[in-house]
Amino acid sequence: MATALEQIEHIFILMMENRSFDHMLGYLDAANPKIMGIADARRAGYTNLFNGSPYAPVPRTDPAVPVDPPHEREDIRRQMRWNPGDKMMTGFVADYATVSPADPYPVGQYYGAAQVPMIDFLAREFCVCDHWFACLPASTQPNRLMAMSGYTMRDHTTNQLFDDQDVAYDWLDAHGVSWRVYSEGFPFFGLMPKVLKRIAADIWDNHFRGLVALDTDCRSADTLPKVIFIEPQFTDGAEPEKADDDHPVTPITRGQDLMRRVYAAITGNPQLWSKSVLIITYDEHGGFFDHVEPLPLLTPQNHGETYTPFTTTGVRVPAIIVSPFVAAGSCFSQPLDHTSILRLLADKYTPGAPYSLDVAARAPIQSVQSALTLTTARSGAAPAPPPPLAAAAAPLPRGGMPPPNAIAHLNAIEALRRLDPQAAAHKYPAWKDYFLKGR
User: Fold this and answer.
1) d(CA 169, CA 152)
2) pTM score above 0.70
3) Per CATH, domain 8-53+68-336+404-437 is 3.40.720
4) Residues with Cβ within 8 Å of residue 85, at least 6 apart in sequence
């Protein structure tokens, strides 16, 4: 009998921003004890510590967090252990107090079904991965580079464009596998000069399209690429008022509706749905609490990296496998991280050969293929998603200097203007005046 992966023809990948597993999905273990979440934390007596007081996990109803939690390498080290001798994973509140002293508790709180209705729906209908970790105890840029390459040349998020390095687009091209990026704003890997050149040259939208086209394109499964990367509108992007990536300070209600729209597009075509898998995860924990310790794992350095090697994975992040090849309400608890997606690509398109030596070295991390436990697709129509959510309020103003990642996005857009303003205006007509007139 053919395996699930042999029957799957389309792999969809949606990576959101900056939330931890306990913060977004931990509530699920109240109904499903197979999931390791808040109930497990309470049984272990888990609390965060700040100024000598315990901060146990409590529910949160406000969909926005007013101050972006710190989440660079040094911050995460303190979040894991604020003082020598403290229990591991208890410094999140204390670290957040350095930027939000009047209200340090949001990072120690968690959402429930009422706040994350689409996640709740997907968790009940498909497979939660409760041991999916960010690749690195680091911020957005290093983790997204790891997710797309299996290695990173930087260990912090900076305002500079990336150096060119191999990414999944190159790997897929080399193996003759079709792919496409659907993005609501400027694609994240436009921060890499060689990808920026591809965007400018993609006048027929073969590889880079707006997310608005996904629904129409999914109606023609025969012409849809094999691997589809879906990107939200980034809070650190050029239009933060439209963001729906879940990065603070953007309300999580917007991310819920993004997931609903993506799911509805894929499941709207039964032929496509019957041979697809959608992977939803988050690039890193963003400073929010999680009670499970990261895995010990020495990240290899084979490309001239100059930073101190990482010795663990990052913090657990939300992850759900959406496919007719997983059982409803199931939980997969083997170790995964973002390179598990790269392993899946290799399992599918180069069986028997690793994606790369970097990825192969990340034992005991498994492939997403291990979570596809059904060899026969579930029969019948895909479950219907919840109705659309009410429009969410715009993100709160940040004030002050934009964060480094936001500056990097603006630098990339300016680099595209300098590279080919006509192509840029064609690709992103909403910014036509800027590309053609510099304003």
Assistant:
1) 15
2) yes
3) yes
4) none
